[in-house]
Specification:
Elements (H helix, E strand, L loop, with lengths): L2 H35 L2 H8 L3 H7 L3 H18 L10 H18 L1 H12 L6 H24 L8 H17 L1 H6 L8 H19 L5
Helix pairs in contact: 1-2, 1-4, 1-6, 2-3, 4-6, 5-8, 5-10, 6-8
Protein name: TetR family transcriptional regulator
GO biological process, one term: negative regulation of DNA-templated transcription
GO molecular function, one term: DNA-binding transcription factor activity
Length: 213
Amino acid sequence: MSSRNASPERRPAARAEVEDAILRAAEAEFAEKGYDGATTAAIAARAGLPKANLHYYVATKEALYRRVIGGVLDAWLAEARSFDENGPAAEALTRYIEGKMDLARARPLGSRIFAREVMSGAPAVRDFLETTLAEWVKARGAVVEGWIASGQVRPLDPKVLFFTIWAVTQHYADFGAQIAALNGGAPLDDDAFAAAKRQVVETILRGIGPDRA
């Protein structure tokens, strides 16, 4: 079979591989240098591509940046599926907190890009914050209100609970250098990270647990 006949079957997989390489390179470049400091030439070099090839897949730096940010946000929102499974509060929150910490460990660069973006006023994601995220908080806030009504959680502002969870879990990505410095110069190993997850979960759940007479 000629290469011409074989190429159509390979194109989807090959395209996906190239796009994945571009996105991984872009995530690293944006995390290291920020939006203004990053260039598509440097991203192409990280991905092992000519710059022209990168622009074949993504037209502009802004479009590439939004794709990177969008991928991070999609991953974060996917971890919130535990809120949609109608389980007990403790189980749902445990899955959510652990999932967010696992993402912080698996994709620390994405978390750092998002933190930098928000601290700069969120120019690229303000529409997401004001629509998709606001709707997510409203819907999951209603779930938390249900837990409060059923006595599983003490009365609290759901938004403050979400802010607390996000701050603690994303700390393990955004402040990885600080954690390593306080851990003898090395990142947490698997056992230490698992212990940290347990402690974070226990601390939050005990803090929001129902008042006991």
